[in-house]
Amino acid sequence: MTKSTQYLNGILGLLNRAKAYNLAIGDYVEHFILQDSYFRVKLSNGWIDIPSEWAKDQEIMPISISEQDIDQMPSNAEIAK
To answer: What residue numbers bound the domain in which 72 lies?
Structure first.
């Protein structure tokens, strides 16, 4: 994994939207590029993988990402309880 700042605003926006569906999602710490077109985002209480295309789209045209997609995003999170 390579540490990144690419699409930071998009990642932060997606996390804020996802927190509306899952309050257990922690605060952003940093993110890394994965080889399969995802960002692995380190949270204050775990990790979540976000498609890099979503992070890009969130910066350019947030409405292109449906609330149903956002609702499903936390399902791939590893959150400490």
So the answer is: 2-79
